[in-house]
Amino acid sequence: MGRGGQRPPSLRQLQSPLVGDVAKAGLAPPEPAAERWVLDPKYAIYAFTYLLSLATGAGAHLVPALAQATLLRYLVNHAFVALSKWDAFAEPRRIHRKNPPAQQLERELDWDGPVILSPLAFVLVDLLTPWLRPDRVGPCDARSVAALFAAHYACVEPVYYAFHVWLHGDWAYRRSHGHHHASVVTEAVSGTSHPLAESVAYLANFSLAFLVPAWCGRFSLGQIPLYFVWFDVMNCAGHCNFECFPRWAQWGPLKYYVYTSCYHSLHHSKYKYNYCLFCPIWDHLCGTAHPTSQALHREVTDRARARRPTDVVFLAHGHDVPSMVTHVPFVSPFLCSVTHATGWVATLLWPLCYVWARLAQLLLPATVMQRYQYRGTQAATWCLPVAARFYLNKGERPAIQRKLEAAVDAAERA
Asked: CB count, 10 Å around CB of 375?
């Protein structure tokens, strides 16, 4: 799940070289995307967790809720990835108008490590302690939900704050936490990209949200998906690089209990400020709240904020039918950072990809894939939702021509 790194480079250093500068930068050409379709051994932990529960009986009553929560967590994280790459949605509230480097996208493929380990942690707790046994599980009612969030704000938050401050000490930062902070321009999934030991420590910290209610006789199965979905929504919101929270979320005392995307973004650029998990009161009490947090939030959420100019638009089209699914940033920013090639997975899914490609061609306009700056020129790559093979059909060319002309007109207005 990664190794500890050094202190992150500046935003200027993080600007990725474009294709034309790869050779000059001394970088190896990216590998074809098809070569990356290999199942990571880490997913065997799911099978191990299920077999352990089956063999010992531990956590058998928890497995359905854990499976539901795990599926929802993947949906939440991928939804935030898609929203963060949807230019029309995220660009007006973009915090850093820069792109993360391709190396970061590859490094953060470990983002679901805590998602994978969470079910195993529940099974092990049930195996080794009586705290989550079936006879101690109650109904998911208002008191159960209140106990869950009381445990989070009274126990998880202060423990996390103290642990996080310690992680920013030189010893822990160099050996572990620097892996996370190598991401200055964060992605939606950056928040769970940590080395293994740090991920385990976080699991112990966040387990208090369930263990404290269990010790008080208020644990319920409904708490599991509820807490994990809420947690991932808040975590992704803090790392997705666009502001998710409205201005009223910072009115009066709310600013002490609700963080913002800008608030946590400053932690990744200032490092010694804004340590909180989701509740800034500990930063305010301990003097680590950055003084520009609210000003940045007001600036990013200002409707009169200047738009990012577009000097040049590169208008492209889909490479092959599967590329219309696998090689768009809404599905996988990482796959977009490597050369596209149709592998065995895309070949098996070709019929489904073809249906989607046809629907996209029929319904979607040219879409912004990426914005970037090249030698002082503000550029953007737009993709026409037309696969290359569709140009070969002469009967389709008039419709493609109309879509192309509409894209040119839209680019002129950009």
From this structure: 7
